[in-house]
Design a protein that fits this description.
The structure is a single chain. By secondary structure, this protein is mostly helical. It contains 13 helices and two strands. The longest helix has 34 residues.
């Protein structure tokens, strides 16, 4: 139902030099996802569900404005920070503690939500990749909610997974619609809130960050590389690791499956922290770090392989 409406409103992503697609495609497929997550929050109920709904609504509306009109990088960052502060204030409003502690928690929470929304948006560049990662992360948080017997984390994680699963058939392969900023902002905010909530409930950081670490590592690595190269890091680009896989000749499907497989592996390694065995946890942490380093080094390895092939 959404796709013809997007076409009628001319909300179309046109191919450009930074694009990984070649066909004009509607963007804004995240609109029904955001609506579905808001309905889920209403059904779950409770204070944290209100925070979840505020995050999805605030960032989803900001993403919709970006899909409609486009915003400058500076203005977009300011509005994102304002949205992060709004959500953080709602999140800490019911907590006990000194004013200084609550202010610090609000600042950290606002920074985390704003940062991860941008991370998720940056990484949404090939067909299926963000839908697959949201599906994996949603399932992981659902399992963590089951482990905690938590009445919010379990259904909220399931809602994120279900929304991603419903979207994927329209985006994998020859994409009929993109998430757009509406979808990437809404899903990024939803996952950021779930991660913050899980940490606050005492879940080990490895288990919480397992499904998110590939996105975080790719963005952080690419950002520091661009800053060191003297590039304008706020400008749009296509030099993320997964985009360089595309430049090496990989299809969107191969990129998505490989990145998703690495994320599943990192999630399983992160869940080892729940066992309470320090040796197993340490071994899993080392293995996870090795997976991330292999991912970050993969473009150089692909380039060397291409040179050897050409030399033959």
């Amino acid at each position: 139902m959404t796709i013809p409406l997007l076409r009628r409103a001319a909300i179309i992503d046109m191919p450009g030099h930074r694009s990984s697609h070649t066909v004009p495609t509607p963007r804004g497929g995240g609109i029904p996802i955001a609506i579905g997550l808001l309905v889920a929050a209403g059904l779950i109920g409770g204070t944290i569900a209100v925070v979840f709904a505020c995050a999805v609504a605030a960032f989803g509306l900001l993403g919709f404005a970006e899909d409609l009109r486009g915003l400058s990088a500076g203005r977009r960052l300011m509005l994102q920070a304002a949205g992060g502060v709004l959500v953080a204030m709602v999140l800490v409003s019911g907590l006990a503690g000194s004013t200084a502690r609550l202010v610090l928690l609000a600042v950290l929470c606002a920074a985390w939500i704003t940062a991860f929304v941008n991370v998720f948006n940056f990484m949404d560049g090939v067909n299926g990749i963000s839908g697959a990662h949201a599906l994996i992360a949603g399932v992981v948080y659902e399992l963590l909610g089951w482990w905690l017997h938590d009445g919010f984390l379990l259904p909220a994680g399931a809602a994120v997974a279900a929304s991603a699963l419903a979207f994927l058939p329209w985006n994998v392969g020859q994409a009929r619609v993109f998430l757009g900023d509406t979808g990437s902002y809404a899903l990024g905010a939803a996952l950021a809130v779930l991660a913050a909530y899980a940490v606050a409930r005492g879940v080990p950081p490895e288990a919480v960050l397992g499904p998110l670490v590939l996105y975080l590592a790719d963005t952080a690595w690419t950002l520091q590389r661009r800053i060191r190269a003297g590039e304008r890091w706020l400008d749009a680009h296509r030099t993320h690791i997964y985009q360089r896989w595309c430049d090496a000749g990989w299809s969107h499907q191969r990129v998505t499956v490989t990145a998703a497989a690495a994320t599943v592996l990192l999630s399983l390694l992160g869940l080892a922290s729940l066992t309470g065995d320090p040796a197993l946890r340490a071994a899993a942490d080392v293995a996870g770090a090795a997976v991330v380093m292999a991912y970050l080094r993969s473009p150089a390895l692909l380039a060397r392989r291409a040179v050897r092939v050409e030399a033959r």
